Amino acid sequence: MRIKTYMSGRVTLPPGFIEGVRRIVGDEHLSQLEGDLISYSLDYWLYGVFLSQKGDLPALPSAVISPASAAQIQEIIRCAGEFGVLITPFGGGSGVLGGAIPLNGSVVLNLQRINRFLNLDELSLTAEFEAGIMGANLELELNHRGYSAGNIPQSLYCSTLGGWIATRAAGQFSTKYGKIEDMLMGMEVVLPDGNLLNIKPVPRRSVGPSLRDLFLGGEGTLGIVTRATISIHPLPRLTVKQSFIFPSIEVALDVVRRVLRAEARPAVVRIFDEAESGRYFPEIGKKVVTIFVSEGEPEYTTLDARVIRRVSRENGGKPSGEEPVDIWLQKRFDIGLGPVLMQYGGIVDTIEVSALFKDAAGQYRDMVAGMKAVEGVLEVSGHYSHFYREGVCLYITFAGIPKDPLRYYQDTWDAAMKATLENNGSISHHHGVGFWRKQYLERELGASGVGLLKSIKNAIDPQGILNRGKLIDGGR
Amino acid sequence: MAEDKKEAEKLARCAMCADMCKYSCPTYLATGRETLSPQKMARLIVYDERGLLEDKDGFMDFMFQSAMCGSCSRHCIYDDYDLRRFIHQARIKAFQSGVIPEDVRKRVDSYEKFGNPNGERELIDKGAGDTGFFISCSSYKDEDLLKATEKMLSKSGSAIRQFGGGDICCGAPLYYAGDMKGFKQASLKMKAEIESRRLSRIIVDCPTCVRTMTETYRQAGIELDVEIMHTVQFIEALLKQGTLRPRKTNKIVTFHDPCILSYDLAISSTPRQIITALGFSLKEPVYSADHTHCCGGAYGAKIGDHRLKDAVTSMRLNELRHTGADIYVTACPTCKSVLSEIDMRYITELVAERILAKR
To answer: Is B244-353 a CATH 3.40.50.1860 domain?
Structure first.
């Protein structure tokens, strides 16, 4: 194959494994065609995407296996265990940290055939889906029946429910509806020994540590999620859109803190720094714009919007109407600039971190300053987009046209991670670790944390079959 | 050259996108195969152009597995881009090098022999007037639809000349096979057929024919000096004239949006207005209008490659069955034929039952 790989290559699979898997899934669902291997070589890790335009790929899978059921996955995993074949689960392939890259000669376990809507429980406000369903189709299924999951990530159109669970994902409406861990009620997981774990959907339980949480953010290293029951919400009957211009990031953060302290729960809150405001809202220009979307039942929504308006005005907010919200709603899935810039040698990426309110402004200023100091930088900008009573998620976008792309990429990430850790923040809010962020893991969790995670991996996947090279080393 | 560079940049942009349209792609959804998602197809085309692929036959084979339905274009984050153009260019190369699937070859052979993809058939040319009704290759085989069309046209109050069959075909099967020489000949023949009948307006019941005879002909440098409309637009005009008779009924109808009608011709509300005006209640499937899915017929009608048809058809049938409707209706003769398991009817058949004679 003329394609070059720069992390790991393919291996020759044991004939017994190939024969076994063909018996399980059928001939047409085990592929070693060049086109299939290329298509499952990379997720949306943007440095990898940048290199992919020249035909350089991080790794190629040794085969692509596409099962149709959890039962087939169980058999495949047992077969892989018997022959010592490594498995990389692949959902929508939208992860931005390389979590689905088939490293170490692994085979890809393609989960996209397992994608059905299963049932709706209107009494309990839950719905069950197979894990390979695309986010947008999950929403279409629910919207058609008068509901929404409330999880609307930017990757809605290319990510799967299983991927949301595997990475502990968060959506744009999270301040009201919560993150995936708040929505996940029950799930079915195929374990590395091939056994099936069923966690039934209940509102809460007290039966030892939460097993569910091993797989929320497990990134496919501890098990493969095959179906899940999530909580749902009736579609809102009223939506109120508001925006305000604040004199600084600090003031905007303080207003949102006060809004949440006053028990308002807007679905969307976003504070854009001057650079992002300038890009999104050229008519307003480089100011700190904050948008709010309140939605739900009319009585509560009206009250919610009133609290936001009062607190914003009392603290120097200048109302800027509904238009910035509409502009954002229209542009929120637009990732169009990155692929254009990359053709001209541009490196583009995003980094999301979290911090308490007391550290949030300092984290932003230090991250931006540190990242802007890296040679080759074109732009560093940020917004806050997921809010809690206690703190925030900061989302930084950066771009550069450097002479040495890898040096620039590494240095920018290093600067960002250093700044967030020095401000007591977490290195990731919702994108996860994958392989790229592994290098910062010990600074986040400490040696004890990494050791504990490794012990868990060793205990659950002693052969280290699942997604080797991601999140945590161990089990081999 | 500047235009080529611009187009190459658009393709490269698609190849580095996050595949934001794949949730709508019926081929991807029905097969669960990432390689058939739009962005991955674009990446393979880029790699092929750069000479990075060794398995050329495999690449060409993937190119013939697209339904070419336009869902990716309709849901693209870029508004100046249609991946189908690049897949089509790859098919032209495949055709030139003789690497085309067997089914496609058979269809092209039939065309060379009979001037149409169906085989030997009689020419239809009846009626008079400067408005024509073109009987597409798919409706030619459908007696119920032909009868309903006859009834509707005869009671519409307009003089309409029906033509089709024989060796009259818009050439779409050749276009989708990548046979551009054959397509050019077919389009010129169609132009001559229209001009010889001195038509100023043509009603067409097949969305693919409508698109081919307008947009695709224009791209190929063929301009038809004639107004072309789809059957539902003609029915809409009948409604406005008061020619249709609404009759209250308890029957529930589910309308299946043909992919080309919805994505390319942007017609989705008109057939619904017609159905409700006829007295039926509508029940929508989850995937309808802008989010409709191809019936699977596109693989047969436009490409001739039937390998994927069963998976896509089965997915669409399941989606439609969930509505539990009394009657399933569509506005594409191919969709009607492909989805016949659920007793699919063409919208003209509903209209024919309820049309008043024009005085």
So the answer is: yes
Confidence band for A24, pLDDT divided at 50, 70 and 90: very high
Assess whether pLDDT exceeds 60 at residue A475: yes
**A311 and A385 inside one domain:** no
- The CATH number that applies at residue A29 is 3.30.43.10
Residue range(s) in chain B whose domain bears CATH number 3.40.50.1860: 123-235, 244-353
Shortest Cα distance from B78 to chain A (angstroms)? 7
- Regarding an ipTM greater than 0.95, the answer is yes
What percent of chain A is modeled with pLDDT above 90? 98
Indicate the residue among A431, A447, A462 that finishes a domain.
A431
Task: Name which of B19, B22, B287 is nearest A140 (Cβ-Cβ).
Answer: B287
Render pLDDT for A347-376 as a digit per residue (tens, 0 to 9): 999 999 999 999 999 999 999 999 999 999
Same structural domain, A228 and A129: yes
3-state DSSP of chain A:
CCCEEEEECCCCCCHHHHHHHHHHHCHHHEECCHHHHHHCCCCCCHHHHHHHCCCEEEECCCCEECCCCHHHHHHHHHHHHHHCCCEEEECCCCCCCCCCCCCCCCEEEECCCCCCEEEEECCCCEEEEECCCEHHHHHHHHHHCCEECCCCCCCCCCCEHHHHHHHCCCCCCHHHHCCHHHHEEEEEEECCCCCEEEECCCCCCCCCCCCHHHHCCCCCCCCEEEEEEEECEECCCEEEEEEEEECCHHHHHHHHHHHHHCCCCCCEEEEECHHHHHHHCCCCCCCEEEEEEEEECHHHHHHHHHHHHHHHHHCCCEECCCHHHHHHHHHCCCCCHHHHHHCCCCEEEEEEEEEEHHHHHHHHHHHHHHHHCCCCEEEEEEEEEEECCCEEEEEEEEEECCCCHHHHHHHHHHHHHHHHHHCCCECCCCCCCCCHHHHHHHHHHHHHHHHHHHHHHHHHCCCCCECCCCCCCCCC
**Percentage, residues of chain A above pLDDT 70:** 100
- Establish, for the pair of chains A and B, how many residue pairs have beta carbons separated by less than 8 Å: 124
A158 touches B at CB < 8 Å: yes
Same domain, A198 and A252: no
Asked whether residue A264 falls in the same domain as residue A318, the answer is yes
Q: Is A476 within the bounds of a domain?
A: no
Region A381-389 average pLDDT: 97
**Spans in chain B with pLDDT lower than 70:** 1-2, 299-305, 357-359
Note the CATH architecture for domain B123-235: 3-Layer(aba) Sandwich (3.40)
Q: Is the pLDDT of residue A159 over 70?
A: yes
Is A445 contained in some domain? no
Do the domain assignments include residue A389?
A: yes
pTM: 0.96
Q: With CB atoms and an 8 Å threshold, state whether B18 touches A155.
A: yes
- Cross-chain residue pair A340–B9, CB shorter than 8 Å: yes
Domain ranges, residue A390? 337-431
**pLDDT tens-place string over residues B110-122:** 999 999 988 899 9
